[in-house]
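Exercise 7. Given the components listed, write out the predicted structure of the assembled complex. Treat all entries as one system.
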Amino acid sequence: MRIVAAIIVGLFAVGLASAVRAKPARVEARIFGIDPPANLAQSSAASCSASACHGGGSAGTRGSEHTTWAPQATPHASGDPHSRAYRVLFNADSVRMAKAIGGGPAHENTLCLKCHAPAGLTNPAARSEGVGCSACHGSSEKWLDSHYLPEWKAKSSREKSSEGFVPTKNLTVRISNCVACHVGGSDREVNHDLIAAGHPRLAFEYTRFHFATNYRRHWDEATPQPEFELRAWLIGQAATARAAVYVLHGRAVKAKTASAPWPEFAGLSCFACHQSVGEGTVKGTLGKPEWEVFHTATLTAASTHASTVLPNVKRPGLVKYGELRKTMGAANPKPADVEPLAAAARAELDAWLAELQAAEESQPRSPQAAAQAFDLTLFLSHAGSNAAEWDSLAAHYLGAAAMYHAAGGEKARPKSAKPLAAIRAELRFPTSFNNPVGFDRLKLERARGGFRALHNAEIEE
Amino acid sequence: MTWDGRIGRGTALAGAFGGIVFAMLASSGTSRSANVVVVQKDAKPEWIGASVCQRCHQEKDPTDVKEYQQTRGFDFVRLWENRIWDAHDLHSMAYKNLTTNATKDNTGGDVNATAQRMEDNLKRLRGDKYTVAGDTACLACHASSQNPLDKATFADAKADFFKTDDGVGCEMCHGHGSKYRDEHQRSMLVKGKVPAGEATREVPWRNADPKTKADAGLVNLRDPAVAAAKCASCHVGNKDEGRFVTHEMYAVGHPPLPPLDLMAYSREQPRHWGLSTEMPFLVNLAKKDAKKAFDTFHYRDGESLVARRFVESTIGALRSNVKLVKQLADEAKPKNDGLDFAAFDCYSCHHNLKYPSDRQARGYDGPPGRPQFRLAPFAMARLVADDEKLAGELDTLQKQLAMSFGNRTYGDPDLVIKAVEKLDAWCDAAHAKVAAVRYTKDEVKKLLDKLTAAASREPIAEPRGVPASQRAVADPELAMLYVWAITTLLLDDAKDGVLPANVATLRDGLKGTVPTRLRPNSAYDFEVKINSPAPKGIENVDARIGARMKEFNAFEGPVFRGAFKKLK
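Answer.
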């Protein structure tokens, strides 16, 4: 009798625990046109990393994704930095940041956990894995038992998504997922208070992260170069800009009730202020920093070229986006004015991303990718030669570098290597500084000159 | 004599008689009681111009002039002030510094690269016809005004309201002269026998109290707090007078205004005034009637004049800074807007990003990452007041102001206005406290030690919650003020114009990281003599500012602290 009672109590406790686990967490529409199921339980990687599933012993091969990802499994290799996301909340910098911000230690603060351990917000057992499997691939609650069966492969992305699966093979879906943390969303952001306390600034560009030397990928990219990097860069631009607009909208909403700072400095061009007095170059609105330059400077390049790379995608009008930029560039944009514009701009970008997503699913491989990468390089180097500030130069540089690597790098484009290196040298921060110290008119002109040289080099090749 | 001749002479006599009566009637309006200074209270002071002042204040040798031998004017003031000012003072160039290609035929000056850059940039906003030399926002500080400026006067003023011949002329500092021009020189015969060597005519003006003189329009520059407020009206800003460098002006190229230090600024160009210690009239008065000497001329025998002026002007500078903040908050309040960026400490935003950061190590009030007001005047005022209770009060008031600035991104005007209310009263209390101090050599040494200790203070491991008075220096503006303050007190000891060794060492230690001087490359003599030749050429503003900003931006906390530790 007592044993039965104990079992019943035990089951009840488990039931209670799982009910508690499945606290509703707001899920943003990262997959366009599909509303994922709400209130999914966030599970840890314990199940995924079974050695018979994704935790096999051979790092770098199929079936050993988790092993590739987790640094403990292969200490000689770098692993994926996402696995360290929770651990970094314990280091000295995070401790200092938490003291400056208030709200308790970083590893317990929802503000930090939202990005550094998203599954861990509702499931403490999942906290230590940082940004784990479910953060990118979606909660497996509904498809854990079916995704290894043969019928799964036959399902369309849409069908898979409706069960909470995030089809990361689709670049649009994948990058929209990344930017939810790496740029932000309506409920998560890194604001200037946090940056001033010590948090690194968020400056996201997909291909730079994808090809980072310390990033060990746990998958094989199906699309070959130059196609892959060309599409990744383009879609990255759209997704990044969309996330930036989304963040702005969230900030405007909060600012209307004065529960958030306005204007929010983290949404403005950092080095417009953080430059030594007396060396600034006059640009745009005199004495006023511009909105989100790094994340949007090359959006025009992307919107012009996406339709040639993916012919099924219409060139986006971005009219409301243009109006939003104009409003943000005026002297004192009011939150009440910005909010509806941001909502409209977001809808424009959503529509474009939905098309990009569909094109990714159905688009046959493009034989003209190399030519299109070349066109894009010319466009970027021309625009870069007129860039007005560091963030804009950096964004153009990253685009040009992506195209250079997509084409094959030094072997295929030997003349472009030097101009690219020259631009990078001008943009580099001096040692121990986090800003381009002494970035005066001279340096700006030299960087612009680098772009002109790149333009000429490309034409020659 | 013919009839015509008689009529002619008669007419002439009648005319002369009538003229005398007319003159007497014209000059009467007020009773002429002999030894009291007379002031027409309701008249507005008008500009008269340096050419009028020069008639008396440009003597080659005042001891040779009969009138001055009678009044012994040269025992009271130099009377050769304008000889120095005209040739050497930078204020005389202030208007000419606005010269651009468009205005070079009118201003009489050479094209100034900084002004040209500002004009080219502002043309984008104001249209092609815009010139800086014709902009009242520039002229308010760079030229002389017809009448004293106030809100209404400035709002109505056009470019021709400003007189430009003298640049920032005599009356911009000493007060518009129409009302005191006659009164301040009026003299009368001394009754009875006068001992040899003493004045045979006395000048009632000299003994009048500062309030009477102020009513006549004279600014009491002998009172360091008044002098600081006067300098601050341009060198810090005063919105009520239309004098304010907006952030937009900085963005188009206006040089950043260094923090105000009366002593440091004054010693960077030749002195045209006589020090109280050099004027026998004042020295004797201080010995005879110490109270009157202090109340009227703010001069006390047996104490360092330099220290007195330094301490009181520092408190005055804080008051002026706070006043400006209030004006900007008042302006922002109806618009429910943030304050103009120029209300903030430049370095609050315009600093390089380093990790670990000196600024974070120093600690701050309020949420991280919010731009704050200029902190430097607070720190200096607290130090010179040299009183625990006052220091604690200022810590609290400073924190309150910091929270009001941090409450919204560009300051919360309502909270700022509340926070500055008590600061004026604090300045009053500080002035009362320092008035009672006698700045003997020991007192000055005490002050010097305090300054050195504060400058060399190391940052604490846990800076959060540390009051402002205990923080290390992490900001180049404050660093400059410390260097200048300590230099002021050390130079007081200087003998025969020889630079003291410790000042030279301090400057060497900070070379390249802190602007230890405002005119490091200019060759000039602070103690110019009556017959000193005109300078060969004044250093170009652009070059001077460029070099200064390079040093300013290279500030490093450890280097700064190290230089002061050596001083100990």
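Discussion: The interface with chain A takes residues 121, 124-125, 247-248, 250-253, 255-256, 337, 341, 346-347, 349-355, 360, 367-370, 408-409, 464, 545-546, 549, 552-553 of chain B (CB under 8 Å). Chain B has two domains: 3-224, 305-565.
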